[in-house]
Amino acid sequence: MYQIVSFASFFLLATACQSTDSAPPQKELTSNLHVEKKLPATDTTAPEPAALPPYSGLIYEKKEILSAAPGTKSVLFNAKGSRLYAMNLEGMSIYEFDQASRKVTHEFKFAPTRGTGWDYVKEKPIPSYEEKPVEACLSHDDKWLWVSLHNAEGIVPIRVDDPLANNTTDTLAGIRRKKIRLLGADKKLVDSFYVPLIETGKTPKVVARTADSKHLLVSNWHSYNVSILETDETRYPYAKVVATVPVSAIPRGIAVDDSQQRSYVAIMGGASLAVIDHKTWKIDTTLAVASNPRHVVMDTSGHLFVSYNRLAKVACLDAATGKTLFSIGTHAQPRTIMLSKNHRFLFVTCYSSDYVEVLKITDKGFENIASLPCKGHPVGVDIFEDADKLEAWVCSYSNGSIQVFSFRKTR
């Protein structure tokens, strides 16, 4: 049973997520599948922006709509940008897309087991399923995908560089396992295997990692804490919780600052950012910010960018002090935000208003260069770039699609 929280916190819950997390397993919506030739793992810690030619502008060109699965919650590119992973919360699966062809190459389909979910509208527990992927991060040169499961109180590691390597007989007393069916491009079964469930807290959301892949941070919505895990890819179950950091209210977004050995956690149920010291794995300080911060990202010059879900705005903050340097209004319910590789553009998904905002970042403020309609309640976004173009891949929660917005770079 979930812990009781204040009326104010539940009000934020209702505005933060419109879904009821009650859908049973559904038939997947997919098309044009093919088998991808396996690519070598790439280094997720490489400084990608330096590899791209400089550019100063973006010109919107087109939108493509790809079929995905029910209730896609987040999307994540590998470092090279060749593959994108879509976490399908209601579909209880993960799609692996090939960026170039726009086709699904693999599906990791969870076997459903009964669990307890949460109705964010009625603010009460409901019968549901445990295996509902929310967010994820890649580690160890893109070998491992760490996925939070909404109702399982933990995360699971999946080998994605070599999916067949997941088929192991390793077990450990006290560690629960989750069954996954690996489907190929033709939707036929390739293999089935079990992955360990590493328990973190109630309703895990964001999973982040340090640059060296030695530690993971997981924000646990209903537990009011952040789990710190130490990874070991050579030993089952590949990670263990080494610290639990209590926070004042519901946590969600996490930005890791490896240069200063600290992380910033958006306290969505309040009005602050909790700053965690990596040397002690304790809260070093708390930065007061505006109400209901959801997502937070960081550039390389000491600036934080925060989306304020209920206030419908995005702000740039000084990471040392938490001071707001500038802000801008957005369409209703800004959710995930993502920086371009050169850190000069910010992409914002606006959930209930069905828009994607594209903001240019200047020394003095934000400039809105595009407000693009995006049906189906857009929630997650990640970016592919090459020398000449930028693509924002946006997943929409309610219509089972991924919309790809393409831009031409100008210099």
Helix percent reads under 10%
Taking pLDDT < 50 over at least 5 consecutive residues as the criterion, the unreliable ranges are 1-20, 22-49
| Gyration radius, in Å | 20 Å
- Report the end-to-end length measured between terminal Cα atoms: 55 Å
How does the overall form come out from the CA principal axes?
globular
Total count of strands: 32
By helix and strand content, what is the structural category?
A: mainly beta
Tally of helical segments:
1
Q: For this entry, what is the oligomeric state of its chains?
A: single chain
Report the sheet with the most strands, covering strand number, pairing sense and barrel closure: 6 strands, antiparallel
Strand content: over 45%
On the 0-100 scale, what is the average pLDDT? 90
- How are strands sequenced across the largest beta sheet? 2-3-4-5-11-12
Question: How does this model look, in words?
Answer:
With 411 residues, the chain is mostly beta strands. The strands form eight sheets. Strands 2-3-4-5-11-12 form a six-stranded antiparallel sheet, with no helix packed on it. The protein has a four-stranded antiparallel sheet with strand order 1-32-31-30, with no helix packed on it.
Question: How would the blueprint of this fold be written?
Answer:
Blueprint: H1 7-16, E1 57-67, E2 72-77, E3 83-88, E4 93-98, E5 103-110, E6 114-119, E7 124-129, E8 133-139, E9 144-149, E10 154-159, E11 177-183, E12 189-196, E13 198-199, E14 204-209, E15 215-220, E16 225-231, E17 239-246, E18 251-257, E19 262-267, E20 272-277, E21 282-288, E22 293-298, E23 303-308, E24 313-318, E25 324-329, E26 334-339, E27 345-350, E28 355-361, E29 366-373, E30 378-385, E31 389-396, E32 401-410
Antiparallel strand pairs: 1-32, 2-3, 3-4, 4-5, 5-11, 6-7, 8-9, 9-10, 10-13, 11-12, 14-15, 15-16, 16-17, 18-19, 19-20, 20-21, 22-23, 23-24, 24-25, 26-27, 27-28, 28-29, 30-31, 31-32
